[in-house]
TrEMBL record:
One of its GO terms (cellular component) is plasma membrane. InterPro entries: Macrolide_Exporter_MacB (IPR050250). The chain crosses the membrane at residues 287-310, 344-366, 372-394, 415-433, 445-466, 502-522, 745-770, 791-819, 839-859. PANTHER family: ABC TRANSPORTER PERMEASE YTRF, MEMBRANE COMPONENT OF TRANSPORTER-RELATED. It comes from the Bacteria. This is Putative ABC transport system permease protein. Coiled coil: none annotated. Keywords: Membrane, Transmembrane, Transmembrane helix. One of its GO terms (molecular function) is transmembrane transporter activity.
């Protein structure tokens, strides 16, 4: 028979093998590309959020003492770019030379200087040609006096128009300039304008109100004139990194390049940038995400490989009679393996290639090891069936018939191998905890193998333990009426026959439960972080509110309760037992009405004592002893340490030195009230914008009381900001690598569920011939089709139940066992949370188990029709 005829004859078995190979190849490429794409998007988003001074590589010139800058450094732009360490030169999307004054006062010419003038920076910058549209006037053409060009918004804020003459002043000089043009940028979002924002500023004396800081443009001759007059003209060479060319796999390389650029600066320059800090922090998150992705991918690929092996074994078992005939006619073992190899080579490589191509078309970035993994999938898918065929034909007891009543007692060799596997898994987990994650090794091989070994070891232990309860249950069923339960449990008790499907099913369930447990753990920790940062439904922050601002907000619709709070960053503390003076963060609020989870010593505190109880951070408590004095807004208060806590609601999880004081118990005089800068808002359905407006009214009222003058809307140096807990909690999922993390969790659970169902289907197909013969005999005794389905349920349920218990336990404890190596704290704002499992995930596992039973019934029904169950005895056919 030719190869094509054999392929046609055994098309079902080969198609199953091909489909599983294609699925494995897709899982190697597609999901990883998507995860890498989400990671790259997160990195680019983090870089985009940085201000221009932090994300750009900016070299500042160092001037000689007493020598004004001549704004003559534009020619060095290409030279400095070429000297940047690789790969930075290829990642620059824009480069500009800037000659710019420091902040200088600006006022109408001839008008005496006021106490709080507006401030401007005047710059000449290359690359502005063609990027502006003149609204009025023209571009600067400076002669003896500098000419200025003003943005439309800056002109409105500063009260400037074409034809105005202004006086610019620094501590070293004054010069007059003319406003000759007003412009708008062609593209306001272009990088060239990203460091020219119009900023509100506070006057040195708050009673003088607010002022504006702006950037004005001039030409080169104007910049030189300003430098000679003001002696504060500096020069910069600014290089914009193109975030679209940056990928997460190059973070380490870029971080080192920026660090090298900082060390090896061109002559008389200094580099200003913090992009390497952002890259370094992101790199730490990438390592943690890659660790999680590696665990999930290893579990999924191990499950897929197990399914391929099961399909290959099924193919070899179904063709025992054929292989026996080949051997009887003098064929060697290699003949059996060779003919099977030719069949798989006809179908499987094409399917694997198709699966790989399906993964390639997905957006994202390929991992470095993708070709090797695809090659490994191809080798496993092509060689598994020939190897199994060779083993079947080579076995000394080979006869072409399988025995379903073979001895269930394992050999000493197998028991030794299983014990070694269990010890290897335990040792791998132990070493992983002790050693931690090898960040320099790319994908840590310990991290890949240890979780899979743990799941396989759990299946081995379950395999050895499950016969005992099944034997007990079978004895009970033998005494009951009817033979269905007894026969089903007897079939389930032949555990060695199910060792392969059980191991695959346990690995799949363990991978899914691991993913679900990590998801629940991260979500719980993020919930805790949100509760700490925003201890009410919303927090209003500002510079300084009037004492009645909280009452104003409490009067708004849908606001149930408000609490004024002061976060005082520079509180000076002196301990009773030490002369040490230190500064800490003090939080002052009415703890009795705030509704926060605080110790009873603070919530029950009342006025009248010599000292008020306080919560103190552990590090500060070690310095202070039992109590001391704290200065809050210019007044000292005595306190005693009532509790020591590492975290309190209202302070972020990274706060280290702090104390919490009960405002209701403090001897605060009426003439010197505590002025809050935070307000906690409790309620449901209130309008955050109304809350913000009321808070700003409170800030203006406080400034009016201080300055004696009316404060206009829009002049606050620090407008109020309303942060709801829901918005803060959402923001924790929109930072850095969170997109890749969420995708990894979702893909891991979906893939694990799908592969678990496939494993159950293959387990049913593996035992279908034996059950078919049993059903054929029982049909002659009156067995109904319904009773036949019950027989399958009794046989398959123990397998699924044991897999759910063993895999669920392994998946649940795995995050706790290898958690120190995963670095989950990077995704939870530093908040540590115990291992938790959302009940929905547990219910999902049970739902998958129920679907698995239904799938088993459907597969069994199809298999019975192909095997023609019920005709064996009548027609004398032999089914194998």
């Amino acid at each position: 028979m030719s190869v094509l005829h054999r392929v046609r004859a055994f098309a079902g078995q080969l198609i199953l093998l091909a489909v599983l190979g294609a699925l494995a190849a897709f899982l190697v490429s597609g999901p990883v590309r998507l995860a890498n794409g989400h990671t790259d998007d997160g990195l680019r988003g983090d870089i985009n959020k940085l201000p221009a001074a932090s994300r750009d590589l900016t070299y500042s010139g160092v001037q000689s003492e007493g020598r004004p800058n001549k704004a003559a450094g534009a020619g060095r732009l290409d030279q400095i770019r070429g000297e940047l360490p690789a790969p930075l030169p290829d990642m620059i999307s824009g480069a500009w030379y800037i000659a710019e004054t420091d902040l200088s006062s600006i006022r109408p010419a001839g008008v005496p200087a006021g106490e709080c003038p507006n401030l401007v920076r005047v710059r000449w910058q290359t690359g502005t040609e063609g990027t502006v549209t003149m609204v009025d006037g023209r571009s600067p053409r400076s002669g003896t006096a500098p000419e200025l060009m003003v943005g439309k918004d800056a002109a409105a804020a500063l009260g400037l128009k074409v034809g105005d003459r202004v006086s610019l002043g620094s501590r070293d000089g004054v010069i007059e300039a003319a406003v000759v043009g007003v412009f708008t940028p062609v593209d306001p979002a272009a990088p060239i304008w990203s460091d020219q924002e119009l900023l509100p500023g506070a006057c040195p004396d708050p009673r003088e109100g607010q002022r504006t800081e702006a950037v004005l443009l001039t030409d080169q001759r104007g910049a030189v004139a300003l430098g000679e007059a003001l002696f504060n003209l500096g020069e910069r060479w600014r290089f914009r990194l193109d975030e679209q060319r940056i990928t997460a796999d190059r973070v380490d390389e870029l971080t080192k390049a920026v660090a090298a650029a900082r060390r090896l600066t061109p002559e008389r320059t200094a580099l200003q940038s913090s992009v390497d800090t952002t890259l370094s922090k992101f790199g730490e998150q990438v390592v943690a995400v890659q660790a999680l992705l590696a665990v999930v991918q290893a579990g999924i690929l191990a499950t897929a490989a197990g399914l391929i092996l099961l399909a290959a074994r099924l193919m070899a078992d179904r063709r025992r009679a054929e292989f026996a005939l080949v051997r009887a006619r003098g064929g060697a073992v290699r003949t059996v393996a060779g003919r099977t190899l030719r069949e798989t080579l006809t179908v499987v490589p094409i399917a694997v290639l198709a699966g790989w191509l399906a993964g390639i078309v997905l957006p994202g970035r390929a991992s470095a090891g993708e070709p090797l993994l695809v090659l490994a999938v191809l080798l496993v898918a092509v060689l598994a069936a020939p190897v199994y065929a060779a083993l079947v034909a080579w076995h000394p007891a080979f006869s072409g018939h399988r025995s379903d009543v073979a001895s269930l007692r394992p050999s000493p060799r197998r028991l030794t191998a299983e014990a070694f596997l269990v010890l290897l898994a335990a040792g791998g987990i132990f070493l992983l905890r002790r050693r931690g994650l090898d960040a320099g090794a790319g994908v840590d091989p310990y991290l890949i193998t240890a979780p899979v070994l743990l799941a396989v070891a759990a299946s081995v232990v379950a395999l050895r333990l499950v016969p005992f309860p099944l034997r007990w249950a079978g004895n009970l069923a033998a005494r009951a009426r009817g033979a269905i339960a007894f026969l089903g449990l007897s079939g389930a008790g032949r555990a060695p026959l199910h060792s392969g499907p059980l191991a695959v099913l346990v690995v799949a369930i363990a991978t899914g439960l691991f993913t679900g447990t990590v998801t629940s753990t991260v979500d719980a920790a993020r919930d805790r972080a949100a509760e700490l940062a925003v201890p009410a439904d919303a927090t209003v922050s500002g510079f300084r509110f009037a004492p009645d601002t909280a009452a104003r907000i409490a009067g708004l619709p849908h606001v149930d309760r408000t609490t004024a709070m002061l976060l005082y960053q520079g509180a000076t503390v002196r301990g009773d037992t030490t002369p040490l003076l230190t500064q800490t963060q003090a939080m002052v609020l009415d703890t009795a009405t705030a509704g926060l989870d605080l110790p009873a010593a603070l919530t029950a505190a009342r006025p009248g004592g010599d000292a008020v109880p306080a919560i103190v951070s552990p590090r500060l408590a070690a310095q202070l002893g039992g109590g001391g004095r704290v200065e809050v807004q210019g007044r000292e208060y005595r306190f005693t340490v009532a509790a020591v806590q590492a975290n309190v609601p209202g302070l972020s999880s990274d706060a280290r030195d702090f104390m919490v004081l009960p405002q209701q118990a403090m001897p605060i005089p009426d003439f010197q009230p505590i002025l809050p800068n935070r307000i906690l808002v409790a309620g449901d359905g209130f309008d955050p914008e109304q809350v913000r407006l009321a808070a700003d009214d409170g800030q203006r009222a406080q400034l009016a009381a201080l300055t004696g003058g009316e404060q206009k809307e829009g002049q606050l140096a620090l407008p109020a900001v309303v942060t709801t807990r829901t918005a803060y909690r959402t923001s924790l999922e929109e930072r850095g690598v969170d997109g890749a993390l969420s995708f990894t969790f979702a893909a891991g659970m979906v893939a694990a569920a799908a592969l678990a169902l496939t494993a159950v289907a293959l387990a049913v197909l593996t035992g279908a011939p034996a059950r078919g013969r049993t059903l054929s005999r029982l049909r002659t005794m009156g067995l109904s089709a319904r009773q036949g389905r019950r027989l399958l349920i009794y046989e398959i349920l123990p397998l699924i139940g044991v897999a759910v218990l063993a895999g669920g336990l392994a998946g649940f404890v795995l995050p706790a066992l290898i958690g120190p190596a995963l670095g989950l704290g990077g995704f939870t704002s530093g908040v540590a949370a115990g291992i938790t499992l959302d009940p929905w995930f547990a219910g999902g596992v049970l739902a998958v188990a129920a679907v698995a039973v239904l799938a088993a019934l459907a597969v069994e029904n199809v298999a019975n029709r192909r095997l023609r169950v019920g005709t064996v005895l009548r027609l004398g056919e032999e089914q194998s």
